[in-house]
Amino acid sequence: MRALLAELVNIIAEQHETEKVVIIQTEALNLIVAALLMRLDDSVRVQLKSGIDEAFASQHGGHPSYTDEKHMLLCAVEKLFNFYMGPSPEKIRIRSGKQP
């Protein structure tokens, strides 16, 4: 019985460690995306947000399931785009079409 309990404790500890790694990776990606968004020109940021909203609506609009997950995802996207509202001195200018 002790061996079984010890094994269970080890499994729970491994799962906890895996969850911590996933959370750290997610936070790192969140910071990277926020930093990239801050450097984008405002018009590009608006176009990107519109594209994400349209893609989300087309992928999830007709499915009533997973409403909690959809809400969490929408909140996370909004949080990223609202993270930085002011102009950045070193914006990246992205032009569509051919570059000269």
Question: What descriptors fit this protein?
Answer:
single chain; 100 residues; mainly alpha; 3 helices
Q: Would you kindly provide a written description of the structure presented here, covering whatever features stand out?
A:
The protein is mainly alpha-helical and 100 residues long. The protein contains three helices and no strands. The longest helix is centred in the N-terminal third of the chain and has 38 residues, at 2-39. It is elongated and about 65 Å long. The termini are far apart. The model has no long low-confidence stretch (mean pLDDT 81).
Question: Tell me about the biggest sheet?
Answer: none
Shape: elongated
Oligomer: single chain
Helix content: over 70%
C-alpha end-to-end distance: 73 Å
Question: Total number of helical segments?
Answer: 3
Low-confidence stretches: none
Mean model confidence by pLDDT: 81
Order of helices and strands: HHH
Q: What would you report as the Rg, rounded to the nearest angstrom?
A: 20 Å
The total strand number stands at 0
Secondary structure class reads: mainly alpha
Question: What fraction of residues sit in β-strands?
Answer: under 5%
Write the layout of secondary structure elements.
Elements: H1 2-39, H2 42-60, H3 67-82
In a nutshell, what does this entry contain?
With 100 residues, the protein is an all-alpha fold.
